[in-house]
Design brief:
single chain; about 140 residues; two-stranded parallel ribbon; globular
Amino acid sequence: MGLTTAVAKLTLATNKRQTPRIERSPHVPEALYISLLCGALMGGEPEQVHQFDYPEGRASIRVDCENSNRVVEFGLDKRSSLDSLQQALFAAEIAGKEAVVVLIDTDGVMGRFEWRIARAANIAGVPIRIIAADLVEDLRPGG
């Protein structure tokens, strides 16, 4: 899926805010989105650990979500998610699976961080999915 398809429903942010930000519930941690979406959306298991060797020793990584074919890195539409693509690509190499990035859109706007991550993912040939936070929050018990 190309960048245009992935973000067709999002409004592009501009310096002069023309689209009001959507008000969301108080801060929802990324881990909750992972727990709600990993099995339901990806058919996977959250927080899988993989060991790897490097020239000076051995270390491990924790994959947000993994199924039989893919490793999935989740991120919120914030600066802290700029490393999502690197994490997904490295995990894919270690696990021998396809990398996927899933961004949770918390404000209904295609902002600078989503744009940077989506562009880089498209350049690298990594599938990216952008999901509205309010759709996910409806999956919570009592939602």
